[in-house]
């Protein structure tokens, strides 16, 4: 597999670790500006980002890669901390934090709700649906692979803790769960219906029973 371009955060972090971070604009500044525009529901425009940060487009592309790579990183920066936060809430010893749901199901059901409720995400899907599907559900980016790995870590941890009760084989479960989540989050692009967190929750909870 070809090596991915370094993520914006990693480039700036390395400079900080080396003690060479400067006051001039950095890749992190560009990433932060683009992410802010995305969350506001605006189109992420590379020329606009470069202008606001104060660099030329060649520098911006060298920092963050293509627009698609930048968007994939923005999308990952939203879902990764969401799942991490929800795991801290739901995956703990004792009774489930959500009656009637296993901890793993509660994490994924709340993740689906968070994605559907994110205004920037929904504007992106409405405005650039084909691109959204390509970045989020195909090998055009590594977003889906990273999400599958993250959910794989979740179900493995729950299995090790004795809180997983699934009939689907553990090695297949993460991919199946990701596909179920995608099906209901991107329902508007697939069937024209509204995204439906409740329908997703019923399927996810059946795959991850309490």
Structure, explained:
- By secondary structure, this protein is mainly alpha-helical.
- It has two domains: 8-64, no CATH class; 67-207, Orthogonal Bundle (Tetracycline Repressor, domain 2), CATH 1.10.357.
- The protein is built from twelve helices and no strands.
- It has helices at 8-18, 27-39, 46-53, 57-64, 67-90, 103-117, 119-127, 129-137, 143-160, 173-185, 187-190, 197-207.
- Helix 1 runs antiparallel to helix 2 (27-39) and helix 6 runs parallel beside helix 10 (173-185).
- The termini are far apart.
- The model is unreliable at 1-6 and 10-14 (pLDDT under 50).
What is this structure, in a nutshell?
By secondary structure, the protein is mainly α. It is built from twelve helices and no strands.
Q: Give the CATH architecture of the largest domain.
A: Orthogonal Bundle
Given as residue ranges, the uncertain stretches (5+ residues, pLDDT < 50) are 1-6, 10-14
Radius of gyration: 19 Å
Order of helices and strands: HHHHHHHHHHHH
Strand content: under 5%
Number of domains: 2
Largest sheet: none
Portion in helices: 55-70%
Structure annotation, total helices: 12
Number of strands: 0
User: Which CATH class of the largest domain?
Assistant: Mainly Alpha
Overall mean pLDDT stands at 90
The name CATH uses for the topology of the largest domain is Tetracycline Repressor, domain 2
From the spread of the alpha carbons, the general shape counts as elongated
**SS-based class:** mainly alpha
